[in-house]
Amino acid sequence: MSRLPHGIVSLVCLLLLTSTVAAQGIAQRNILDIPGMDSKEAIKVNDHIYQAVGFGNTYLIKTKEGNVIIDTSNGAFATKHQTMLRKISNAPIKYIIVTHAHPAHVGGVARWREKGTEVIAHTNYPKFRDYQRRLFGLFERRNAAQYALPSFMVKRAQEEFLKPEFDATITFEKEYKFNLGELTFEIYHSIGETQDQINVWIPELKAAFIGDNMYETFPNIYTLRGTEFRSPIEWMASLERVIGWEPEVLLGSHMLPLQGKEEIKKKLTHYRDAIRYVHDETVKGMNQGKDVHTLMSEIKLPKELAIGEQYGRLTWSIRGIYEGYVGWFDENPSTMYEVPVSAVDKDIVELAGGPDPLVKRAKDLSAKGESVKALHLLDIVLRTHPSHADALQARINAYKGLLERSVNVIEQGWLKFGIRQDELTLKKSMSNPSSAKN
Ligand SMILES: [Zn+2]
Does residue 260 share a domain with residue 346? Predict the structure, then answer.
């Protein structure tokens, strides 16, 4: 266990894995923070299935021969979920099924595990955990930035869930089935949000557990924290398998239970079609020779396929698909070298007659609502004059302008990170007036 007091670890896990952060005093509700997280009672889905709501959910499935847990939430919710679900049944935990290796699903594995409990995951689960270990420093930095947390706290939380007691005991390639009591558990590899994603089907209950392959917002086909390629083709195939089951109950890791065959089919089909539209339009544009930024600005979901973008975002997904398929090269010979565009920043500033005219133009652009263009100009100024007070203030204002218009919690996290960084530099710059123009 961590040497940090449990309460602190829990707090870190909670903050790390939810984005209800209150940086700059602005609380933002994450679309994945579903109603009921503060409830002390589990939801009874039917006589066998109970859901403890959290980030993410924990499911208890009761059988005559013992219980099965599907996903275990993050470290902060795990204890509470266990208390809630133990009230429903105290029978032995025969299996824990982990839909994928993201911390919001793995966090309670060690807590639920008993002597003889099997932990089932896909063969890519240990590989995905290795990937997270390999990029530990990068995720530590990016999680701290995105969720406004001290780095040491993020480090401890990451160390915790990557411990061996969170490993699987059974892994499989394509499918794995077992019977327990009166129920059958069919588990399928279901690539989508991750390469190790698995979905579970209990035919006797017509219940499908979809993990993170669907939530009530456009999917994160790319996420800014960083991810391996999330293949829309495979994601769609996984959704189609679930549609084919004709579930009457749909249980996701970040949503409330959905009931009713027709309603579930409609939602799953809509989700699949939205992914297909974005994928197909991106591929069409790539073949036509359109660059990634043109596609990011051109492709919009048609009205009938609209989905909120409070978590996943179309533009990031388009770029994720483009670069996931062909990598970073954009057919422009000048970008194949190690000399970046920023290498001519100094020349641009000199030609403009110093930083001030560029800052003025940036402010004009911001005033017209063109905040991103303003950011590009200010980036040029601040790369050459990192303590330029006027430029720093203009960039903070541009970030704030974007923040006001944002509905996406991840975008908000990064804008707030930018504001924090610049406010810190500005404070230092103002305490040393000679540097305020540099
Ligand atoms: Zn996930």
Answer: no
